[in-house]
Design a protein that fits this description.
Helix content is 8%, strand content 54%. With 142 residues, it is mainly β. The mean pLDDT is 93.
């Protein structure tokens, strides 16, 4: 696999849109999602499809997506007791409320969602060393 690891930082809505594109179709288990209220941090360990390598590469990468300055986290439709539940991340969306404060929605397939209330956009995506050949390319039905 190529060693073209990503480390992206988002400090505004435009930056966050780029991170969202890199995370589209990432899969994770609920046990790999953590809210650390004392640190005001929200962390997801995910396996993202490396869209930037092109569909022919079919590569997944172990990555960490973390959000800073998080005041609150709430879920919709997610069974928080089922730690083995697999989630597929579709988008990361920012809605300003009292800029730079606002909400960041993590939108998953199956009508699942995590909403973060944040002081501002401060997000980082970091690829880890692990990567592997994916068995298929994610497909979206219109």
């Amino acid at each position: 696999m190529k060693e073209n690891r990503r480390k992206l930082v988002a400090l505004d809505a435009e930056d966050l849109a780029a991170i969202s594109a890199h995370c589209q179709d990432a899969v994770l288990k609920l046990k790999d999602v953590r809210f650390l209220p004392a640190e005001r941090r929200f962390v997801l360990e995910l396996n993202r499809f490396a869209w930037e390598e092109g569909e022919k590469q079919k590569e997944r990468r172990k990555s960490v997506l973390h959000f800073e300055r998080v005041q609150n986290a709430a879920t919709q439709g997610i069974n928080q007791r089922d730690k083995e539940q697999v989630l597929c991340l579709l988008a990361v969306l920012y809605t300003p409320e009292d800029p730079p404060a606002g909400t960041i929605d993590l939108v998953f397939s199956g009508d699942f969602q995590i909403r973060l209330t944040v002081e501002c956009v401060e997000v980082q995506l970091t690829d880890m060393d692990a990567s592997w050949q994916a068995s298929s390319v994610p497909v979206h039905k219109d």
